[in-house]
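About this split. The held-out portion is used to measure sequence recovery: a designer receives only the structure tokens and must propose an amino acid at every position. Recovery is the fraction of positions where the proposal matches the reference. Here is one held-out target exactly as it appears in the evaluation file.
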């Protein structure tokens, strides 16, 4: 424990404390004991139905699927020379985080969730005792659609690929960020989908998923950080 504490710089500690403050955590103690991680009993989980649509033969091993994402011309939005931001992190970490697509800044830096959104994302991870090496980070589409928007057919195809991807990674919990992802996988936007667990049907069974706001949205709507913190608390409770 001492070595972990010593490895945290003053700047990193201040950054995490600022995230907690922005999320609405304004005291360390209270007059009565409280279980800060306990959440109200959620309603019965909503089941996200698998989209029944023709799908290509997909690799049945995660390593081969990574290669498929990096090289296949059959992916939605694939074009010669188009940058691809492939999954990163540890697929055995039990926590998979899915965002919608690379931003233009991500494509230029060849890194998912870069820039100011990346700084905020790293602070969110630090607040739950994680970093990019202890999660598995992926996208609904590793390619950026023209104009940064999904069309209906492309979103449907990406959802099929994402469910296959989730099934191969088999995380204990899945954090879904932003409206595009939650609509594709959970059938509702973030506002309606958050604060309860969903069971995503995959080939091997089910995966528990929770929805929250994308870091880019949180940068524009600072008041939503306290809601994102509530989502992260639920996630921590699931992961133990």
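Reference sequence for scoring:
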């Amino acid at each position: 424990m001492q070595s972990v504490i010593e490895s945290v710089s003053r700047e990193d500690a201040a950054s995490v404390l600022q995230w907690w403050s922005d999320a609405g955590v304004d005291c360390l103690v209270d007059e009565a004991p409280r279980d800060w991680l306990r959440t109200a009993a959620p309603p019965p989980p909503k089941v996200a139905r698998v989209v029944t649509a023709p799908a290509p033969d997909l690799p049945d091993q995660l390593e081969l699927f990574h290669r498929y994402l990096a090289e296949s011309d059959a992916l939605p939005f694939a074009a010669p020379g188009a940058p691809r931001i492939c999954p990163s992190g540890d697929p055995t970490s039990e926590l998979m985080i899915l965002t919608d697509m690379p931003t233009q800044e991500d494509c230029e830096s060849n890194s998912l969730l870069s820039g100011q959104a990346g700084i905020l994302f790293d602070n969110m991870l630090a607040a739950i005792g994680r970093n990019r090496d202890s999660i598995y980070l992926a996208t609904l589409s590793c390619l950026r659609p023209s104009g940064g928007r999904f069309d209906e057919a492309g979103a449907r195809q990406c959802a099929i690929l994402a469910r296959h991807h989730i099934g191969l990674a088999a995380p204990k919990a899945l954090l879904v960020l932003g409206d595009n992802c939650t609509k594709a996988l959970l059938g509702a936007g973030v506002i309606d989908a958050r604060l309860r667990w969903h069971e995503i049907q995959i080939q091997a069974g089910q995966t528990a998923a929770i929805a929250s706001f994308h870091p880019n949205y949180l940068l524009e709507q600072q008041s939503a950080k306290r809601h994102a913190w509530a989502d992260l608390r639920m996630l921590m409770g699931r992961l133990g």
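Annotator remark: The first helix runs from residue 2 to 7.
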